Amino acid sequence: MIRSSARFASPLKSLKSLKSLKSRPSRNPLKPLWSRLARASATLAAGVVLSAALGALAPQAAHADETAICYNCPPEWADWASQIKAIQQKTGIRVPFDNKNSGQSIAQLMAEQKSPVADVVYLGVSSAFQAKDKGVIQPYKPAHWDDIPANEKDPQGYWFAIHSGTLGFFVNKDALEGKPVPRSWADLLKPEYKGMIGYLDPSSAFVGYAGAVAVNQALGGTLDNFEPGLDWFRKLKANAPIVPKQTAYARVMSGEIPILLDYDFDAYRAKYKDHANVEFVIPQEGTISVPYVMSLVKGAPHEANGKKVLDFVLSDEGQKLWAEAYLRPVRAGAMSPQLAAKFLPAADYARARPVDFGKMAEKQSSFGERYLQVMH
Q1: Weakest-pLDDT range from 66-70, 240-244, 353-357
Q2: Of 10, 32, 204, 263, which is most buried with the most CB atoms under 10 A?
Q3: Which three-class secondary structure state does DSSP give residue 93?
Q4: Is 11 helix (H, G, I), strand (E, B) or coil?
């Protein structure tokens, strides 16, 4: 193959070229490049300034400004998927899904205090007391503030309930392998249910802690005496419980966890929306009902959008969506008689006893430590 002599010049010719170069006046061969770069940089800077100016004048906000970050808004829990879809449709604000639990959300907010990322946060009620104590949330009294019962909101507006649930057994009857549906906390200790019982980690997830408070209170304990509940967990170890950290709805539906300590709304959703062969049981010894709340994050980067989200979840439409997901909306009028009829009878709910949420929050951390000691 013949190659071009221009591309493969002889060494002698190259040497002559080098001598010729040395005889020329000294010149920086990169100077033209630096000049072009300088001109390009100046043009780019001018473009950035112009773009920023136009952005400030534009009626539409930038994409990031159409967002509100919510910690602990998992699509598979409490039908946040439908709520988030409605928020975007009605307000134009996009809320990304987030699968943290309450404890993980507070830890993240604390880690980000100097440079907050989230705008709003959804928490179990006792976790909200902790969030206030840690200084990671700020007051905001949303629309319909006056409709919220006094015992379900912080007087200064640091947190407020949006809905509540009653804790019990979410049972996949098809996965019980012919065994009877358990009716009591005592039933769950029976060897026949070994490997079938699940509950969220009480040292991290609020629903797990709520379950611990419920069983402890049902068995004669108090928020000053967790021994009955801890003893129950000790005995439950023999049944090899499954203890996830995040919502486990799909694992119950698949039959992986036939019996989950969970709220009524998840069981009703499985029964009426997903048409699964499931049952919700309020244990014979008793249980508790607890609110879930929301807060505006301190230093929220999209504070105005966060406030719109908080307004929406308490709006007529937002509250109706919670009711349609089988939660008890904090504005009771949002629950239609037709939906209420799908819940267990009032006589069953009468076994849900009151609890001091402030004290429940105060004891959460110490209980978590003791629980870990018992279970490890």
Answers
A1: 353-357
A2: 263
A3: coil
A4: helix
Distance CA 72, CA 206 (A): 11
Residue among 294, 231, 266 nearest 102 (CA): 294
Instruction: Convert 305-348 into a string of H (helix), E (strand) and C (coil).
Output: HHHHHHHHHCCHHHHHHHHHCCCEECCHHHCCHHHHCCCCCHHH
Model confidence at 320: pLDDT above 90? yes
CA neighbor of 87 nearest in space, from 66, 101, 71, 109? 66
Higher pLDDT, 3 or 325: 325
d(CA 305, CA 309): 6
Residue with tokens 């906390």: 185
Nearest residue to 165 (alpha-carbon basis) of 20, 9, 338, 282: 282
Using only the alpha carbons of the chain, give its radius of gyration. 30
Higher pLDDT, residue 271 or 35: 271
Structure tokens at 192: 């026949």
Using a pLDDT cut of 70, give the percent of the chain over it: 83
Binned at pLDDT 50, 70 and 90, residue 204 comes out as confident
In the chain, the domains with their CATH numbers are 64-163+290-344 (3.40.190.10), 165-289+357-375 (3.40.190.10)
109 contacts 134 by C-beta, under 8 angstroms: yes
Question: If pLDDT is split at 50, 70 and 90, which confidence band does 64 have?
Answer: low
User: What's the pLDDT tens digit per position in 137-150?
Assistant: 999 999 999 999 99
Cα–chain-centroid distance for residue 89?
21
Q: Tokens in use for 254?
A: 């698949």
Helix H or strand E encompassing 165: strand 160-172
- Amino acid 247: pLDDT: 77
Tokens of 100: 């943290």
Q: Which whole-number Å values give the CA distances from 317 to 89, 96, 117, 295, in the listed order?
A: 12, 20, 27, 19
Choose between 40 and 222: higher pLDDT.
222
Beta carbons within 8 Å of 331's beta carbon, 6+ residues apart = 144, 147, 148, 314, 319
Say if residues 210 and 361 touch (Cβ distance below 8 Å).
Answer: no
Tokens of 280: 């919700």
